[in-house]
Amino acid sequence: MLNNTEAVKPYSAITGVLIVIFSMVSVMSADWVRGKIYLGIIGVVCAGMATATAFGTLMYIGIPFISINKIIPFLMIGIGIDDMFVVLASWRRTKIQDPITKRLSETYSDAGVSITITSLTNMLSFSVGITTPILGVQIFCIYTGRYN
Fold it and tell me: Mainly localized where (predicted)?
């Protein structure tokens, strides 16, 4: 297992760059004013920072770090990017003529429900995984569940 982890380590940086590029390209549009390229970068950075904070907090309080936890950042960044796409889709459905405050209100009321439901189900799923008698699964679920 450790050899597999070490073998994929060089590809982690490449994967991170590809995730950022994919996110930027996905939020682009033909209109440079309405395109949200920075949103693609910020979505990945925010998910990455949240994952790093959760990892740091759990390591600080003494929960052991196992090698399988190295895949968690990719899982969490994927969930974070998905939430970013939900918010952006809701924003694009609002009327351009409306004031920003009204557009944000409509965006959050529309996207907030979806994001809340997916976050709660993810958290519940990983919380159930904490109850398993297999220590590796427990640790994985603790690290993954604390992100949500």
Answer: membrane
* Averaged pLDDT score across all residues of the chain: 84
Which two structure tokens, joined as six digits, stand for 53? Answer: 């904070």
Spacing of C-alpha 101 from chain mean position = 26
The pLDDT tens digits of the residues spanning 46-95 come to: 888 888 898 899 999 999 988 888 888 888 888 888 888 898 889 888 99
Report which of residues 55 and 36 the model is more confident about.
Answer: 55
**Euclidean distance between CA atoms 110 and 97, whole angstroms:** 18
C-beta of residue 61 within 8 angstroms of C-beta of residue 53: no
**What is d(CA 132, CA 114) in angstroms, rounded to the nearest whole number?**
28
The secondary structure of 64-109 as a DSSP string is PP-GGGGGHHHHHHHHHHHHHHHHHHHHHTS-TTS-HHHHHHHHHH
Rounded CA-CA distance 36/102 in Å is: 19
